[in-house]
Write a structure and sequence with these properties.
alpha+beta, 5-stranded antiparallel beta sheet
Length: 548
Amino acid sequence: MPNYLYPINTMRFGGLASGIDTETMVNDLMKVENMKVDRLKQDRQIVEWRRDAYRDITNKLRAFKDEFFNIAKPTNYMLSPNTYKNYRSTISGNETALSVSANADAVPGVYNIQVINLAESAKISGTKTFDNLNLNTKLLELKGLGDDGSFSFDDEGKAEIVINGETIIIDKDMTVRQLMNEINGNKEANVKLTYSSITGKFVLQSKDMGGKAELDVIDDKNTFLSFLGIEGTEVVTGKDAEIRININNEKDEDGLVYHNITSSSNTFTRDGITFNLYDITADDMDNNTVTIRITEDVEASFDKIKNFVDKYNELIDEINTKLMEKSYRDFPPLTDDQRSAMSEKDIELWEEKAMSGLLRNDPILQKLVYEMRNALNTNVEGVDIRLSDIGITTGKWYEHGKLYIDEQKLKEALAEDPDKVMELFIKSDGKSYNPNLSAEERRVRYNNVGIIRRISDILEDNIRTTRNKNNKKGLLLEKAGIVGDVTEFQNTMNDQLKEFDKRIDRMNEQLFSKEEYYWRQFTAMEKAIQQMNTQSLWLAQQLNMGSY
C-alpha cells in the first residue's frame, strides 16, 4: 500500500456473509498494482544513486584542484614557477644578522653580504619615567601634567594635537589606553604610540620605516608632549636599511667588488632573493661578512612533480574504475517488502551490486578523461619538448592513461634546463580562465598554454561554481550539483527526482482509487449475499410454520 493517507468513505465488509477473506483477496489483487509504484521507486533510487556517484567524483576533482591549484597553498601550487625552479640556501658567518630565501627568479651563486644599517622608523622617545602606569587611568587623574596636574583642556573639555597633518581630539574623560587607541587608529596620521612597562617610557614613532618616514607633531600647549615625557625631545629621523653585497667573489684591481643596496624595509627582494635583516654585522665591516650560497634544489622540484603525477594517477584511476565498473541488471534496488525480508548483511551485498556500474561509459566522465589525457600529450606552442622528453610517459593502453616517471631523466631535465620544463608545464597566454570564450578562442588558448594550465581549465569547465554568460556552472554541477552550493537542489538530476516524486504521487492516488473500487465491489457482493441469506431464512421460517 502507498505511504499516503486518504479518507476512506466506503464501509467495508470483510467476508461476514460470504466467509471470504476479503482483505487478503484485495491485498493480493493490489500486489500487481503496487508493483508499478515499486518500479517507479526503483527507477528513482537509481537516479538518486547516480547523482550521488557524480557528486563523489566531483568532490574528488575539487580536492585535487584544491591541493594543486590553490594559490593559498604554495607548497603544492602547480601554477607557480617556484614548483619547477627551487633553490636551497646555506649561510656561514654571522647567521643571526640576516636570512635569505630564493624564488624562481634567483640566480645560483655565492653572495658575500655586509649589513651596514637596519631600517628604522622616525620616532620621539620619552625621557620621563612613569612607573607602574595603569593604562586604564583617566587622563584627568594623572599628576604632574598641566597647571591642575593633568592635561590642559578647553572649556568644552577637549584638547587638540596635530600629527602628520591629522588633528587628534583628546577628551578629558579618556583613559591613557583610549588615548593610545585614538592615535594608533588614525590611518592618516600613520603613527604608533607605545608604552613599555619595563622602561616606564612612551615612544611615538611612524609606522613607515626608512629615510622618508614622517613624524611631525604640533602641540601648541605642550601638554601632549609633556604628558609623554618628551617635551623638548627632537625627532629622530627614519633610516634606510643598507647592505653591501659581492656576487660570486667579483674582483677588480682593488679587491672584492661590493654593490650597495638600500631599502626602506628590513625585508626586501632583489633578483629573486628575499633578504631579512636582523642586525648589523659589525663595526669592522671588512672582517665580518655573511656568505650565502644559493644552489638549485632539483630534488624539491622533482618531489613536487612526482606528487602531482601520483595524485593525478589516483584520480584518473578512480574515474576509469567507475567508467568500466560492471553493471548487474539482475540486482535492481530493493523494494520495501524485499528489504523487510532480508538480513542487513544480505541487503548490503545486494545493494553493492545494485549500485555497481551506475557511471559505466558515462559520456561526461569519458569526455573529462579524454581531455585530461589529450592535455598531457598535445604539443605546447613555442615549447620544443614534450612530457616524454623529460621522462614522463603513459603506460599500456589498458592502463587508461596512467603516467610513469623516469626519475633520472626528469631530474636531468630539471637540472639542465628548468626554464624549459617550467614552460612545458605552465606557459601562459597572459590571460585568466574564461568560460565565455568562443570555440576558436578556446582552441588558440589551449594550444598556447602549458599542460598544467590546460588541466586547470578542464577542471574549471567541469566543477566551476561561477556562472558563464548563459548562467551555467560547471558541467558536473549542472548535472548533479554539490552540497553547500545552490546546485545542491538546482540540477538536472534533482529535476528528474522531482518528476519521479510527482509520478509516484499520481500513481499512489490511482492505487488508492483502485483499492477502493475493489472494496466497493466486495462490499456490494457481501451485501447481496447477506440479503439472500436473510430472504432464505425468512422463507425457511415460513415453510416451517405452514407444516403445523
